[in-house]
Amino acid sequence: MSDNTAKLNERLAEWLPREETQAERLREAMNYSFTAGGKRLRPLLMAMTYEAFGGEGPEIEPFMAAIEMIHTYSLVHDDLPCMDNDTLRRGKPTTWNVYGEDFGVLAGDGLLTYAFETAAKAFEVTGDPARTGRAMSILARKAGLYGMCGGQALDVLLTGSAPSADQLDFIYRNKTGALLEASMMIGAVLAGADGEALENVEKAAAAIGYAFQIEDDILDITADEAELGKNVGSDEKNAKTTFVTLYGMEAAQKEVRRLTEEALARIDAFPMPAPSLKELVAGLCSRRK
Fold it and tell me: What are the residue ranges spanned by the domains of the chain?
């Protein structure tokens, strides 16, 4: 783990619940899930986009924590026996495998709810409540029916069947892409972006999200558990159609490269140079975990 990642983890962990209550086991399960590790891609994208649009201020911090809480809750629920039934996540036993299926459900619910409580704290420190309100709206929409949850629902519905190309596209753009779009859009909005500039951010994030999901499909076949930090072969085990099974490995690798190049070109149009953001995005094309 790099020093930068370690510092980011410390910053994010500051937003976790600490009070001891009668619901202590729930707090433990929530914090276990959140602190299990991970790339922290979404808060990184948010912070880097905020900076690329000239953002300065503390209001970005609670949103960075909130987006990671929502992402973590989605993984906790995705691992449940009623979903993918996975026992390993980020190199550790999954939440339900440690705390039980019931607390796996509750930990995800708790993280989702606490994410919005956390994001709302931005109102206490912002100089522009309207921007914060707009960011809250983006977070809610991209996490819900018209975003991540909608994509996950279709993914579950079609498990064991062969989705069409349009259905697979919907799943990828929502299940994975929506939270990445939220991350970058919130960073841009909090820094004052709107109109065509915000639309360009959303399209850049959509390309990143699609490339990221296809790369996950590739890694599910080519990586091992030690590299990936989670169960591999899950797609095959659950009879899921992926971009790789639909179009083949070569086409999948080519599409990852094309989407990454598109995202980088759109980032070049941001108001300020963003070399760290471009380096992060470029690395997604060749990651091993």
Answer: 3-286
pLDDT per position as a tens digit, 1-20: 456 678 888 899 999 998 77
**pTM listed for this prediction:** 0.91
Give tens-digit pLDDT for 49-69. 999 999 999 999 999 999 999
3-state secondary structure the chain: CCHHHHHHHHHHHCCCCCCCCCCHHHHHHHHHHHCCCCCCHHHHHHHHHHHHCCCCCCCHHHHHHHHHHHHHHHHHHHCCCCCCCCCEECCEECHHHHHCHHHHHHHHHHHHHHHHHHHHHHHHCCCCHHHHHHHHHHHHHHHCCCCHHHHHHHHHHCCCCCCCHHHHHHHHHHHHHHHHHHHHHHHHHHCCCCHHHHHHHHHHHHHHHHHHHHHHHHHHHHCCHHHHCCCCCHHHHCCCCCHHHHHCHHHHHHHHHHHHHHHHHHHCCCCCCCHHHHHHHHHHHHCCC
CATH number assigned to the domain covering 3-286: 1.10.600.10
